[in-house]
Here is the input.
Amino acid sequence: MNIVELITSQFGSQIVGAIAGAVGIEQDKAQSGLSSSIPALLAGLVGLTSKPEGTQTFSNVMDQADPGFLDNLAGALQGGKQDSLIETGGKMLGALFGDNKL
Here is the structure.
């Protein structure tokens, strides 16, 4: 099992279903999108942390995030907390790829 498969396996059908419901797409399309986005996220993380200031930049973003936001991701997607997740995700993606690339 490679790292992409390992990460993808952590997203069970409940989480994938919640993602699909939150964005209004079919569950198989959400699974496909999730699977195809993981390599890009890993590449962004490698690129960021290869810069001298990159690790600190990402650490700062993670420090600002709700420490339990991944503990119940499916519930958060269904429980009206999508705005908080979108904000946290936007900050993380901005740190990985640069705000101007989002």
In short: The first helix runs from residue 3 to 8.
